What does this fold into?
Amino acid sequence: MSTFSRLGVMVGVAAALPAQSLVSPELAGDRQRAFDAAAGASQLRCRIDPVRPALDYALRFRTGYSIEFPMSQFEGAGHSLTTFVRVTPEGQKPLFLENSGTLQEVPVTKIDGQVGGTFVVGEGNYDVEVLAQDDAHRVCHSQWRIQAKRLGNERELIPATPAGAVEELSVSRPRPPVSEARNGRITVMLHAASMLPRSSKLQDSDVSALSGSLFTLLQQLPGLAVRLVVFNLAQRKLLFRQDDFTQADMGKVIRAISELQLALVDYRTLQQAGSPADLLTGLIETELRDAKPLEALIVLGPRLFTRDNTAIPAVDKPVSAPPLFYLQFQPQSALYRGVSGPPAGGRGSCLSCGAARGGIMGEPRLSDPQYPMGGPLGITDTIEKLLTRLKGKTLPVRTPHELADGVRRIQTGVGGNALAEGTAAEPVPKFTTPPEGPESATSAPQSPRRPAATSADQSPVAGPLHLPDTDKLPRVEAVPDVDPVDLLMRLRDQVLEHAVRIPNHTCVETIERQRFEPVVGRSPKSCDNLLAARKKPTYPPRLRLDTSDRLRLDVAMAPDKEIYSWAGASRFEEVELDEWIPQGAIGTGPFASFLLATFESRTPRFVYEGDRAIDGRALMEYSFNVPKAQSQYRVKAGKEWVITGYTGNLLVDTKTGELIRLAIRTEELPSETSSCETDSSLEYGSVQLDGSDYLLPKITHQRFIGRDGAEDENIVTFSACRAYQAESTLTFGSGPGAGLAVGARPDSLDLSPGLSVTVDLGTPIDADRSAAGDQIDGRIAKPIVGARREILVPEGALVHGRLMRVETRHSTPPEFTVALRWEAIEVDGARVPLALRPERGAGSLAGIIPGRGLRQRGMTIELPRPGEGSYGVYHSRAGHWEPGFRTEWTTAKP
Amino acid sequence: MLAFAFPLAAGEPYDPQVVLGRVVAKVLENNRRVPNYTCVETLTRRYFKPPATSLPRSCGVILESRGHTTPGLALTHVLTDRMRLDVAMTQRGEVFSWVGASRFEEGFIDRNAGLGPMSTGLFGSLLVLIFETDVKEFEFLGSQVVNGRSLMEYAFHVPWADSHYKVKAGKDWVYTAYSGKIRVDPETADLVGISENSAELPAATGECVSIVDLEFNLAKIGDGQFLMPKHALQHFVAPTGAEVESTTGFAGCREYRGESTVSFGDTPAPTDDRAAGAPVNPIALPPGTHFSFELTVPISADTAAAGDRFHGRLIEPMRDARQKVLAPKGTAVEGRVLRVESFPNPPAVLVGLHPEALEIRGTRVPVAAVPDWRQKTASRKRDRGRMAFDLPQPGEERSGTFRFPGEHAVVPRGFESDWTLVEPASHRHR
It folds into this structure.
């Protein structure tokens, strides 16, 4: 990828370019040849930055790119630029997109131009290549890898785009109906208004948010006939009304609301008696009194800031009134995952994409209001007031993620019977599992669905964990003749058999860690207040994703605990996990300890809670409580440990006796732990190892709720489980060879400390896939020369190391960080230990005069984190480090 | 062949070597002459847990810490359980059965010892190991006065290569080195006590060490007086720092009688002593039949033990599907207590009941039954209440486990429970 100095001025030229369009399959060969020919073509100076996937309000992952280039390359008239995009979903054939257009005449200039493109992907991993080509056949090329991953309640919904699919950006494009059956009907009332209180027309972001959300409702409530009512309260006007509204009709709505002139009020409207509240009341009463019963009435619109002081008219709510919901769009003052970048323009366009460079492409941030979050004093939302009077629920929406939360609550409220059977709709959470079979040690974990959340935790807290909510699962009649005690005994026996066999196996454990910070900053609170507030449905989302990182470990079961090592290391660590991974929240137990603690020794007293159903699967639910006096659950408190009591919940398949889910929640933790509570939810499935089934969690979510309001969520998956082999013995300790891959020789290389070492990275690092613990290779870029100028290690010698941190800071734009260390070098075919420290001398720090080593005042330094003194730490906005990435080191004492 | 090392013998009123020789001879003679005999062994185990700050650590650290107890290592009592067994010394070693059962079973302890540790060598095997097979050398330590009685003390050490001392490690048994002391009465040449502790045990055993202190006395068996263990105190120390203190008492030692034979589990046998001579059961009780009974004798958590018999009576007639009365109201029910566990915090007692037979019109009818949860399940469905229960332990599937509040609870006379008859054959789930 070419780079150049940025100038202070940029212009957007995207308006001159048509949309990013999918290339038909018959033209794919031509586009492939364009990419093949790029290597030999002359270079176009430009810089291409990825725009990483993020959800929009249609719950699709938008992604794309932005290209920045000096306009001086296109002086004169008649120039054109074509962009080809090759997107390869993991394990599939590539798809091509393109756009092209003619540039307006460019005068002599030093300014930069910018174009961009947007397209939509389904959940999954993709390789993306972008090739920009001008009319002189000069090219600019870049490639990267992206991951689209749903979180939290997003996983509970029908994906708007199938996994692994690549689509053009189009809200109005209809999808084939998933079901012709109609089991009931709902009314959606869309209030066509702007998030900006005094806007004269709906902004692009308003149209995008409202139409995308409507699209989502249609998508997620299949099997229901929809009556759409579009209105505007300020104009006291009914804009659109249609029964049996489908996604095919989306274009009509977008046109209707886009053309709305909010600043124009018909004089006749002013002459009419009645207030906006009267209009709203009338519309709602009409729906509630309709002869055909409603399954739900959903109002969709921005929070109102109009000063309508008229009283809300009395409304007679029918006894059998349906549930009422108000998806209330609120401007946000803080950035959330996937909320950044420019307002979405038309299909595939990207105006002023500079803000999104290297960032996350998502739904445009809802416009900042002129009023504070709570609204100006004395002004209330008329819709909210009326809905509250009718005992409806107001569901605040500031981000697409919150829309997913709201839709899930609506699904639950509408109930399973009304939603179509046999469709993609899921009236209740449906468990799906990641692909069977071992995964490679570097593959990112799949994203199975989250387990159902408990009613106690319906809070729309930002972040992926909504704790097990068995209350949300429909209660069903008990399966006759199944004794709940007998069923649990069968499970217990299965677990005990597992306990005998599991110590002979090890798995790769991948931990995705996410750190959520309070939007308003950390502040100590009492756990009582914090936990109680989290459980309220009205609890406002107040967390933002701050950082995330990924770890990859080997895990095995020792007689009394789980033991760990970096993935592929020859020895398991003797010390506790938190001692060698000191940064961030981390917990043990998902591999086996949680389950064995439940059944292996004296079992707790169980409570049969009743029969449930998930996806037609009959389940029995049990709960249990382990008081502190009988607990072995330890939590770190400073340097010490404390034991905590905990409660648990089990879901067991009534027919097969299989464990479906185990949820563990600690009691309120003592203050010295700095935490209020830790919650773990483990979704189980059988894993075949050596022809036998093992009970392993397919995915585990651990949530650590801090006393200062911050929260951590770890998502744990297991892969590559295998029995111990003869050559893979289970050993402990930090003796010779510790940390080296199996087969390392404990020979030594006599390198005195202080010698300069330059290493070129050989293994590509991608922040979307790589994990701390992954092994990496590199090559010595320059001979290592001794004090007498003798060559100690030749250029090209192979070095082996390990990633020690792979972290993403979810700022705007995001920042990616890796920490790595080199552990061994191959000399004469032998792998010997290598001790290096990152070069922090001349030239390695900003502010140091290259070649002279002079330090300047005001220079930027980055203090290594505790324990990372011997790691090289590197930052990137792109999130990937290509082979050849050069790093400078000095030899150190082993 | 024994060797002796007596560096400290000077000044002793008795020659340590002579005394030890007499003791050894007496023990060997005792072992040779003792008839087949059986005793009732009552085992009370108290479980202690360390504070959380005591991380699982190496056994060396744990054992070293035991000698220097600090507040951080103070253990908390979390549970007491109790078992009562018949134990017999045979040519095949010690064998066990429930008290009063007609049949000793090999592997009985593995199946019935519950979840706690248990040693099976206390009754007589240890004497054989120390005085006949393992110990090659005693070292005289000195004399001491215990309860006004002058005793001489000798140390012994058995390396792994010479040891026949076995410890269970998972499904296997492993040999371990051990060492200890014996205390003898120089006047009578009686063995008074043995203190023994194992070497550090392999991790697979789940224990760091086993420490035992045995006291002996002379007990009358048949026509003779024989050296018998009176009392044993044993400690099991786990790598977590948790400990179990096991107190074993022996009583009712008696020679085998004609009607009390020792048989082993290879051949089918009735489930109860009296059933061996009982007439062929003429009464068929179909599986699936429900019945309820009440206890007629209370069960006290402070004295009862797993293995004790319990007694009850039907509170309603037992009827078949056609409502025909199979057993009238008041029919005697007899069974075995399978579990007695007492928790101090929160205070509660768990009692496992295993119905074995009904006395129907003068005929003892063996039964196998499991608790009938259907009524509770049905009522729970009706009122959306919660149904709490305790799982029977593995091997206790044909029993019901009941919880009572209070660390010293007494299961009262009149306590009612509901049951369903099941096939008396193999275990349901195993």
